[in-house]
Predict the structure.
Amino acid sequence: MFAILTVNGELVDAGESVESCHVDLNPEQAWPSHTCRSCGEGLTRETAGWVDSNGDSRCPGNDDADHDPEPTPLAWCNSAAILTDEDDDAVTVTLSVGDPRGAFAFTVRRVPDDAHGPAAGRLILHVPQPGDPYPHVALTEVHPGTYLLGSGPVGD
Ligand SMILES: [Zn+2]
């Protein structure tokens, strides 16, 4: 197999064969989960409220009122990867959003021509499902193909 790897549209020399491509979006949880809307500082939640890296809850960009936290875009994602497996005739895309040691895996695999059954010679798609024995994160179905991450009721 010959593959071409690009990053932001730019060709990257990855040798003759690309078997995996991994993007670490938040190594060692370096990004804060929240930032301040007023001053842009990264914030952490403590028992007394949201504080910046100095432990200060007062915002210099907001007349010394409290920092105004908002979720940091993409801070929920640890990593994403594409894995190819010629022996298994499969491509897997993984997304890690919970424990960084694991990930959701989405795989398309070609069933061998000589396999028994109607899938012989066809492509099949495997996706994470609610009730998987070892889920990366529990899934709650909203409707077929769409899931909330985490368990609990789905409200309107
Ligand atoms: Zn602030």
